[in-house]
Specification:
It contains 25 helices and no strands. By secondary structure, the protein is mainly α. Among the domains are: 109 residues, no CATH class; 70 residues, no CATH class. GO terms for molecular function: RNA binding.
Length: 425
């Protein structure tokens, strides 16, 4: 009889699966398996190993942890159980790709899932040609195989290859893309406004095939249309979605904010809260951006405070950047500078340059002087020529012609050049 307090397999697996954190899952695993009296090949070992790997590896991403568990499974004889091997491979792909490569080469029986995992792993490592070779060598592909390869091209920015492979899937295979495949492709369209027509075609295909617009696909469509400037289409998709969580709401709010529709974005945010949907960090990025575009200073400050105090979220550099820009444009330069000083993350050059630009607009050299040397220390002469020019202009506005000339001389000496204005259209 096992010494574990869990006398049955279902109880033990349920306890591990429902653990609140990786540490708790590992502790339960040790109690039920490592310290138990189960026989060498008791099914609890293999099933629990799969659960523990899924519960821990995706969150911890610790190579030593995976190696430790791998060693235990070797001793217990579960190493080449197909589900355990697949879970181990996934853990190594996340934590230590060289170990994943070795394990994959040692596996006597590879199935479609393990090959798909390695395709994604190779792609994430930038070895896209190796991923494609593995894809081409597969004896049998499922839709996840195609999604992994297409996603690999997307992750490496090889948009043309991703769409070419998608067309091959459409015309040369009996398989048909599912929601996850379309979501992957729509992320390409969202990243590149020039592919909006293809995004609309993907939407039309999903409608023609009778595909359910689930939360993931609906969010991807809303995001694609919103980033492309087709806010009416984004709104139509949003309202036709049968189920909505925080993600489609956030996509609409961010899209409206990006295109200067601050008041509408805030109206969406109020409706979202009224319907009981809890905002996340992405939502507040859109909200604060909307406040910045609409000049809603008090609203922006109130929501920034609510983000951390009411919802317990951690403000990132982009959240601080929105508020600093909001305060700077409103002429509240001392308050903006005070926020920069109290930031819990290191301010980047974008935030500091934004504040300097506001100092120039409002002709406030006093605040600018507190930032100039810090900004120049962060600036890269090869790409931040505009920063040097801004500093020179600020000195000139304050009548400090000697300092302005010094910066211009520095620009000439280091061959600093302002980047020409350009359009992506």
């Amino acid at each position: 009889m096992p010494s574990s307090p869990f006398s049955s397999l279902p109880r033990a697996l349920s306890a591990i699966k429902s653990a609140s954190n990786p540490q708790e899952a590992m502790c339960l695993y040790k109690i039920t398996v490592v310290n138990g009296d189960y026989s060498r090949l008791h099914p609890l070992g293999s099933h629990a190993a799969v659960f523990i790997l899924k519960a821990c590896c995706s969150r911890l991403r610790c190579a030593n942890f995976v190696r430790h568990l791998h060693a235990h499974l070797l001793k217990a004889g579960h190493h080449f159980h197909v589900y355990v091997a697949t879970a181990l491979l996934h853990g190594y792909v996340l934590a230590s790709f060289p170990d994943a490569r070795l394990l994959f080469e040692e596996m006597p029986n590879r199935n479609t899932v393990t090959i798909n995992t390695m395709i994604s792993g190779y792609a994430k490592q930038g070895e896209i040609s190796r991923a494609r070779l593995l894809f081409e060598e597969m004896p049998e592909r499922d839709i996840a195989s195609w999604s992994a390869m297409i996603g690999g091209y997307v992750g490496q920015g090889e948009w043309a290859q991703a769409f070419r492979l998608f067309r091959e899937l459409m015309w040369a295979e009996e398989l048909k893309p599912d929601q996850s495949t379309l979501v992957t492709l729509l992320s390409c369209c969202a990243a590149r406004a020039s592919t909006r027509l293809l995004g609309k075609s993907i939407h039309a295909y999903s409608q023609k095939s009778g595909m359910e617009i689930n939360v993931q696909l609906g969010t991807a469509l809303v995001d694609m249309y919103a980033k492309s400037g087709c806010l009416r289409s984004a709104n139509l998709v949003f309202h036709r979605m049968p189920d909505k969580n925080v993600m489609p709401w956030s996509a609409m709010i961010c899209g409206l904010a990006t295109h200067g529709r601050g008041e509408e974005a805030m109206a969406f945010f109020r409706r979202m809260k009224e319907q009981g949907v809890r905002p996340n960090e992405i939502t507040f990025t859109g909200v604060l951006n909307a406040c910045c575009h609409a000049g809603l200073v008090e609203e922006g400050k109130k929501n920034f405070h609510a983000m951390t105090e009411e919802y317990g979220l951690t403000a990132g550099v982009h959240h601080y950047g929105c508020v600093v820009d909001l305060l700077g444009k409103a002429g509240l330069l001392e308050e903006a500078y005070d926020l920069v000083r109290k930031m819990k993350v290191e301010p980047n050059i974008v935030i500091l340059t934004s504040l300097l630009a506001s100092c120039k607009t409002h002709r406030n050299l006093a605040v600018a002087e507190k930032l100039i040397e810090r900004v120049l220390g962060m600036a890269n002469p090869d790409v931040d020529g505009g920063v040097y020019a801004l500093v020179s202009d600020l000195y000139a506005l304050g009548g400090r012609w000697g300092d302005a000339e010094r910066i211009r001389t520095l620009m000439d000496r280091d061959s600093v050049k302002k980047r020409r204005g350009f359009s992506a259209i």
